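Researcher: Go.
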Amino acid sequence: MRTFVLLLVLSTAAAADPGRWEPANTWVFMAGVLEWQDKNLSPFPKKDRKDRVLETKFKEAGVPAGQIVFLEDAQATQKAMQQELRKLAEAAPEGSTFVFYYAGHGMQDDGGEVYLANHDADTGKKKATCVAMADVERILSKNFKGARLFFLADCCYSGALAKVVKSFDGKPAACLTSATASNVSTAEWTFTDSLVSLFDGDGALDTNADGSLTLREADAWSAGEMRFKEGQLTRAALTPQFDVDFVFGAVDPALKPKEIPGPWKFHDYCEVEEKGVWYRSQVLDGREGEWFIHYLGWEAKYDEWVPAKRMRKPQGIGLSGGDAVKVEWKGKWYPAKVMKVEGDFAFIHYDGFGAEWDEWVTGKRVKK
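Model: Structure:
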């Protein structure tokens, strides 16, 4: 499974403004792994890699270059990642901001533990040869003296970071991820791109138009990007001490979205009717009574102007809590019950199985 992982941790000074990120007081650890010794781990294309783009955005935001460590591909061994993470965490002073970033494969063992595949990872010996999310938690808990933690992951099972966040209850901690703890992720950089937009000051994220970009807005932005472009459910998890309106930065005036008339706004996701079929689409422009849309998954040559009567809000999965369904798992269909529904996703419980098997599924894997 081609998968990208992104994990980010932030901590801010207790003496500083608790609601705003301070880049100059930030230390960043980054490991981007797109190739592996283990042939069971498929390499990723290095062209247009977004981990380096994110690194650039941190620098442009004001993080000093001397406070950033980047281990790329073969440099990112298990030993190097653990040692460099510990050294940087120790070097970051009290009240500093610490960033941990990883891009590569994410894996899960039979016990549900999630691992970050370092360059020398052995898929047959994950526990002994990989960097576990639990390792990141342990190293930071022991060596980092900061006060605020923020985790981001773009990988299969990345929602497992919610458990890491919970372990830091008592201090501000939060995470954004590309998928839930029970679901795989795609090989695209979509989630990472949503982070680039955040740190770039993209005004499309600024839903309340106050000029600031917050965790609440970053969560809504990444959730929309993953739902409509990748078919993945993502959500924020945070401790009570983390303010959901924590500010990451200001909107770049050059990146304010175009204002268009009517109920549909620039970048909105919608559904457009074409010959009796409704297609997921995105609004690119608008004028009185019609909007210029892009059909998701189709070439730009199909972009067109459509009237309001051919547009509607995205429809959900069409299930309700309590529905009896069948769910596909590894080619077989199992009876299950819908516990709750969110957009295109249903959280289900398999009949006769323990709660540890409960998971979020899309319409492709469920039927009444």
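Model: Residues 117 and 212 are 35 Å apart (CA to CA).
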